[in-house]
Design goal:
The chain is mainly α and about 240 residues long. The chain is built from 10 helices and no strands. It has one domain (about 1-244).
Length: about 240
């Protein structure tokens, strides 16, 4: 049942224009960050880490969360058209399969985006003249950023499911990015999905977790968010089924 739902999601995305956004936003992030680094190399003296502080700031704080919001809103777009909700709720598939299939497909799209961004970061570093080895934390930032992106995806999928408007969940997601930044600055980065992304990708502080327990807390917090939000969203879908 879940496999059928995943196949249906891929069919919807295969010929869509969402791929343009998936490619364009990482490119813009790296171009802006690399240009800023190149212009200010006299001040930004830590080479790859300084470059990461520039490209990661635009990508991790703004473009990536917005991209996640767009992907999630797009994944529910067809369901909100006409009376497709009634068709879905009467189909022989469970609410859990519908929601989880969207989570899995969005998660795969975000892996593609992460790979593209990190490759562009390496290319950008070479183009601006960096000759030293890239940061050893690069793979950790990749994985931790992807984990945190799943947490944001769960939240955005729930919002996009709830609101018929395509723009409203994206607007809420944009506001959440600023809230996440504020919570990170206040040393509350482990308490909100968007600040978890900032922490995991080392966007503002190019350093690893201070201890193993902090890393475990990061993983547990993400997992709890994903589970709780998914359960609430699936329960809402089941209740909507009764109402329909």
């Amino acid at each position: 049942m879940l496999i059928r739902c995943i196949s249906a999601e891929w069919l919807k995305l295969r010929h869509s224009r969402i791929w343009i956004i998936l490619v364009t936003l990482p490119i813009i992030s790296v171009l802006i960050g690399s240009a800023n680094f190149y212009i200010n190399q006299g001040v930004l003296a830590k080479e790859w880490y300084s470059l990461w502080s520039q490209v990661g700031l635009f990508y991790g704080e703004f473009f990536f969360p917005i991209l996640i919001s767009i992907c999630c809103a797009y994944s529910w777009r067809l369901e909100h058209l006409n009376k497709n909700w009634n068709m879905i709720m009467t189909a022989p598939v469970s609410a859990a399969s519908i929601f989880l299939s969207k989570m899995l497909v969005v998660g795969l799209l975000l892996i593609f985006v992460q790979i593209l961004f990190f490759l562009l970061y390496l290319i950008g570093g070479k183009l601006v003249g960096l000759t030293s080895a890239p940061p050893s934390e690069l793979f950790e930032w990749f994985i931790q950023g992807w984990i945190a992106s799943l947490t944001i995806s769960a939240m955005q999928l729930a919002l996009s499911m709830r609101y018929r408007s395509f723009a409203v969940p994206i607007g809420i997601g944009l506001c959440a990015t600023f809230l996440g930044l504020a919570m990170y600055v206040l040393d509350l980065g482990m308490l909100f999905p968007h600040s978890l992304l900032t922490t995991g990708m080392g966007v503002l502080s190019q350093s690893d977790f201070s201890s193993q327990s902090e890393y475990i807390l990061f993983l547990i917090t993400n997992l709890l968010y994903i589970i709780v939000i998914s359960l609430v969203a699936i329960r809402w879908m089941r209740r909507k089924d009764v109402v329909a």
